[in-house]
Specification:
Radius of gyration: 30 Å
Mean pLDDT: 88
Helix content: 40-55%
Number of strands: 15
Largest sheet: 11 strands, mixed
Number of helices: 19
CATH architecture of the largest domain: 3-Layer(aba) Sandwich
CATH class of the largest domain: Alpha Beta
CATH topology of the largest domain: Rossmann fold
Length: about 550
């Protein structure tokens, strides 16, 4: 435990020091700082992971004081054979790619060029495994030419030296046996300054860990294997990582699409950290609503598990006419949201994502979607049509209404919609968890934080189909129809009337008290009426 804590702190310190270097060279809070920090961190991670892996293949390397010096004695043929024996999920490095090689060369002329060339060559050498595809099939490689982000060319060599020297301070090798919880903590720290809600046009915000955990634990409440997982608005991949961890990273394959290159880069990093490299070829940067990428032949691919926290409102006006065609009528069965005339960015695009998700579920598919709470009670429009489809097709598992401000920088109340195509019996759980959590300040914003016990209470109560007073109800499809397709738990709670036994004398006393109070109120009302009449008469006289 102490080793893990020490490495967590050391790793966080490395990230913070890299950010400090960027600040020193004028890149603090610069739009390119994110690329530098994440890519340099990834290079360090890959270098140390390579060293760790080759040591498992050759005991001489494992016992050597410096494995890089020992491996220098390999012939080219021996080295190539070593690379062939490596796990295909690991980055393969040439000897001139090693961090130690760059460290020894840092005083050479044009060191920044050597640094950039090295990263670019690693990207090319591993392109088939680690590149992210765009919707058109182009490949986005691992690394950029990072020194070019320093506008003063005379500072580039020293900038790259500072980065390399910082990376050389310690090794990740002792933590590669760690699992999801460790790396999710590191990933959160790595991207925390670059993934703010509302910070980008396409809502590249980080789903709180509590929400992700609840969604995954309710979706996957029993062991499964060889399943497909999908997020059509993946962002940095928090939801997918929690889902994969709940299932077992070796028992699922991940698919995603997101319009943001930044988000796709984050997701790629997340997959590498969490031993899901096999799924990187399925990570697509592109417009899911306009051009969904994942297909089998001409048909959209269907998935066993879908998670999503889609953007709620977005200006999608440029694409609306392209969506309204015969091919999309079945996918967008409830219709396409109107584009507001004044505020185009208020288009309720999340309604397109919900319909796309329903359309993309396999015959036994399950989904969990973050929605604005207003969706679960809207009495007309696309919202109600979607709810009607879920009930008529018998595929609703339940809804959890979350506390307000569960996302730190948005006041929108959210609920989690759970869909399950196998839930034909209609044992539906509606939960009002809005009163849970503790209010805390996060910067200038207020956030609601769930305790671990509260998270587990939500998960256990939902999965056990418990009806708990003022917290959950378990209803049928017919019950929901009778309530005009409302998914709000509060509309199903019983109205409580408290009865108290009293004697005739006590009853008489209470009634006398009520009569006295009424007489007093009537008297005061009469006096007030007279006073108003006097004032009105005076006004007329004047």
């Amino acid at each position: 435990m102490k080793l893990t804590q020490d490495f967590t702190e050391q790793t966080k310190k490395l990230i913070d020091n890299l950010k400090g270097i960027c600040t020193s060279y004028g890149l603090g809070n610069d739009g390119n700082e994110f690329k530098i920090i994440t890519q340099v961190f990834l290079y360090k991670f890959m270098n140390d992971k390579f060293g760790y892996e080759v040591k498992q293949l050759d005991t001489k390397l494992k016992t050597a004081e410096k494995w890089e010096q020992q491996i220098a004695d390999y012939t080219d043929a021996q080295y190539e054979m070593l690379l062939m024996r490596m796990n295909p999920d690991n980055a393969k490095l040439k000897r001139q790619h090693y961090l130690s090689y760059l460290h020894n060369k840092q005083n050479s002329e044009e060191f920044s060029k050597l640094f950039d060339d090295t990263l670019r060559d690693i990207a090319i050498f591993n392109n088939e495994v680690f590149s992210v595809k765009t919707g058109t099939g182009a490949k986005i490689t691992l690394f950029d030419e990072l020194s070019n982000y320093i506008t003063d060319s005379s500072q580039r060599d020293s900038f790259c030296r500072a980065l390399i020297n910082q990376l050389f301070e310690f090794s990740f090798e002792a933590i590669f046996h760690q699992k999801f919880d460790f790396f999710s903590t590191i990933f959160e720290h790595l991207i925390k300054d670059y993934n703010k809600d509302g910070g980008g046009k396409y809502a590249e915000y980080y789903t709180p860990h509590a929400v992700s955990k609840i969604m995954a634990a309710i979706l996957v409440d029993k062991p499964v294997s060889s399943v497909t997982c999908y997020d059509p608005a993946a962002g940095s991949g928090t939801l997918l990582m929690n889902l994969a961890h709940q299932i077992g990273e070796d028992r699922c394959t991940i698919y995603s699409q997101d319009i943001s290159q930044k988000s796709s880069s984050m997701l790629r990093l997340n997959l590498i950290l969490n031993n899901l490299v096999d799924s990187i070829p399925n990570i697509i940067q592109g417009n899911t609503m306009l051009s969904p990428y994942h297909k089998v032949g001409e048909q959209l691919m269907s998935f066993d598990y879908i998670v999503s926290n889609p953007p709620f409102k977005l200006d999608f006006s440029d694409y609306v006419t392209n969506l309204d065609n015969k091919q999309n009528h079945e996918r967008f069965f409830a219709g396409i949201p109107n584009v507001p005339k004044k505020d185009k960015d208020k288009m309720s695009i999340y309604l397109l994502f919900i319909q796309h998700i329903i359309f993309s579920l396999s015959d036994k598919g399950k989904a969990a979607i973050v929605v604005p709470t207003g969706f679960i009670t809207a009495q007309s429009g696309i919202e109600k049509k979607i709810r009607e489809r879920l009930i008529e097709s018998k595929m609703l598992r339940g809804v959890v209404s979350m506390p307000s401000n569960i996302f730190a920088t948005t006041g929108t109340n959210v609920s989690i919609l759970f869909i399950d195509k196998t839930n034909t019996k209609g044992d539906i759980v509606l939960m009002d968890a809005s009163k849970l959590g503790t209010k805390v300040k996060e910067g200038k914003n207020q956030k609601t934080v769930l305790s671990l016990d509260e998270e587990q209470r939500i998960i256990d109560t939902f999965n056990q189909h418990e009806a708990v007073e003022d917290f959950t109800v378990v209803v049928s499809y017919e019950d929901i129809k009778a309530k005009n397709y409302s998914f709000s738990a509060g509309q199903y709670f019983d109205v409580k009337i408290e009865y108290t036994d009293i004697s005739p004398a006590e009853f008489e006393a209470k009634m006398t008290g009520f009569k006295t109070n009424l007489d007093k109120l009537f008297a005061e009302s009469s006096e007030l009426e007279c006073e108003i009449k006097k004032q009105l008469a005076g006004l007329r006289y004047e």
